[in-house]
Amino acid sequence: MPRTKKLVLIAAAASLVFAGQAFAHAQLKSAVPAADSTVKQAPSELDLTFTEGLNLKFSGVKVTGPGKAAVKTGEGMLMNGDSTLMVPITDKLTAGKYTVEWHALSADGHKTNGTYSFTVAP
Questions:
Q1: Predicted structure pTM score
Q2: What start and end residues bound the annotated signal peptide (predicted)?
């Protein structure tokens, strides 16, 4: 293979790698309680793990329960190299479906948000 063609292929491959990094955003990778799960015991905290580190000042959650009632939460904190947002739940959760609306600002400045639900069994 001619040297020029090799260099073009290497440059194309490198640009794909760097383009993938440029479009990276902090996406929710996992949560405890998990999305669409049913738990027997009401959780005392939410643990949301993201694909990259977060800026705590601009990241958080809003939790609503049965009847769209707001659930009180404590101040969040970052764990696991700033990629897990832990938010204490200060209200006592009763049986029913809960929705978690999250928003995150990754350490590199990209904003993301989403929702998921879990259910506390009777």
A1: 0.79
A2: 1-24
Q: Which residues pair with 4 in a beta bridge?
A: none
Domains held by the chain: number: 1
Domain containing 65 equals: 26-120
CA pair distance 33, 37, nearest whole angstrom: 7
CATH assignment of the domain containing 62: 2.60.40.1220
pLDDT digits (tens, 9 = 90+) for 38-77: 999 999 999 999 999 999 999 999 999 999 999 999 999 9
**How far is residue 15 from each of residues 2, 10, 20, measured CA to CA in Å?**
20, 9, 8
Tell me how far apart the terminal alpha carbons of the chain are, to the nearest angstrom: 68
Residue 10 pLDDT = 53
Distance of CA 45 to the CA centre of its chain: 14
Q: What is the mean pLDDT of residues 80-107?
A: 96
